[in-house]
Amino acid sequence: MGAYLIKGGKPASGEITISGNKNAALPCLAATLLTDDTVRLCNVPDIEDVSVMCKLLKGIGSSVVVVDSHTLDITSGTRKGFLSEELVEAVRGSILFLGPLLAICQEARLTPPGGDVIGLRRLDTHFLGLSSLDATCSLEEDGSLYIHANHSRLKGNTVFLDETSVTATENVIMAASLAEGESVVLNAASEPHVQDLCMMLNLMGCKIEGIGSNLLRITGKKRLHGCSFTLGSDFMETGSFIGLAGASGGEILLRGVQVEHLRMIRLGFQRIGLDFLIDGPTSILIPRKQKRLLYREVGGHTGKVDDSPWPGFPPDLLSIITVCATQMKGSILVHEKMFESRMFFVDWLIRMGADIILCDPHRAVVNGPSRLHGSIVTSPDVRAGMALVIAASCAEGVTRIENIYQIERGYEALSQKLLGLGLAIEKVL
Ligand SMILES: CC(=O)N[C@H]1[C@@H](OP(=O)(O)OP(=O)(O)OC[C@H]2O[C@@H](n3ccc(=O)[nH]c3=O)[C@H](O)[C@@H]2O)O[C@H](CO)[C@@H](O)[C@@H]1O
Ligand SMILES: C=C(OP(=O)(O)O)C(=O)O
Q1: What DSSP line would sit under 178-206, residue for residue?
Q2: How far is ligand 1, taken at its centre, from the CA of residue 162, in Å?
Q3: Are 144 and 182 in the same domain?
Q4: How many separate domains does the chain show?
Q5: Residue 116 known to be catalytic
Q6: Catalytic residue among 49, 116, 196, 307
Q7: Among 182, 209, 230, where does a domain finish?
Q8: Is this model's pTM higher than 0.90 or not?
Q9: CA 20 to 30 Å from 395, out of 83, 118, 352, 425?
């Protein structure tokens, strides 16, 4: 499994370049199934989740040519064959095969996907959305998901999603791109990764309007063609390094950032006393000098940081906010509204000396600043794992973080990037 040994107490400082967005890479990889032509994907992060998706694509006949470490040429083949249960269960992104396979093969069968164990990962919105396009979805007795088109081609429709699910929106978009007629998707998710998928499909000949909003109008095409598409930068990685610099008291220059994606993220970090300077269209500087004060609401009440679908504060950054808040002065409520089990990781921070009250599975009150000390901890999910890395960088002594697969599946070259920022980190078996 592997572990990190991190000796804390030194501010993380230096420069790094942010990688391509993991959550954009996954749907864009799945969308290559929608055409027989070759699709070139650029700025693909070199991470485990991508490698699993590529293995799954190869399993159903796609050719994946590695042009360089961040560029892939993908050409679909039969789209028949084996979607390995073990690989499907390794990533949440595997659910993204449902939409394209349904559109192009009129059916798809998949064991339930995996991903972070942070609470129920619902499938209902996927079923609701895809069945609105004239398909039938079921959970089979053997536990697999089976979906088939009721006619030879899916039919465009008005699709109202019961929640703004990211991957369900992506599945509906991909299915609708080859459906007959127009689809209008209401209550659609609008995260930058959803936008990337839409932009890629438009380059492939589809017509998607309303990109970035919660109403998408998709004109389905009989066939889509190849394209070359460059993935956007990973705003979760950006937020993680803002957190690392801020919590450890260092100064980091981040390159390859999409500053336009950071509006709410910046407001969230400001609430815990951290800010950054915009240094050109694709760079930000997190300066050493920070307020380091947990904000209070107008009227003096305890402040809070909470998540919501885009353009709200992303749920994936709340673990980072929580650990950073332990190093700031004051009290703050962190309210994770979307996943039922994500906040349980605070037990590890408490073990390291943090003063946190877990009020219920969704809410934690953080009182800071706390002196953290090294401990042996385990990464339960990709973002909690990164939060533990940040905690370790601030702690006195050595922290051993186990199960680092659950960190590295989402962060490219993490240990090298951390070494470059001066962190005393060693990777051990
Ligand atoms: C591969 C991928 O892209 N994974 C991301 C994707 O997962 P994923 O697409 O699985 O997440 P969903 O957007 O479906 O939902 C996430 C959770 O939020 C809840 N929910 C969602 C929408 C809503 O309006 N109300 C609500 O309560 C859902 O019930 C679920 O518990 O989006 C999540 C939410 O941004 C991110 O954490 C994941 O990193
Ligand atoms: C929850 C996440 O990933 P996944 O949906 O792939 O489990 C994440 O990226 O924080």
Answers
A1: TSBSEEEEES----HHHHHHHHHHHHTT-
A2: 12
A3: yes
A4: 2
A5: yes
A6: 116
A7: 230
A8: yes
A9: 118
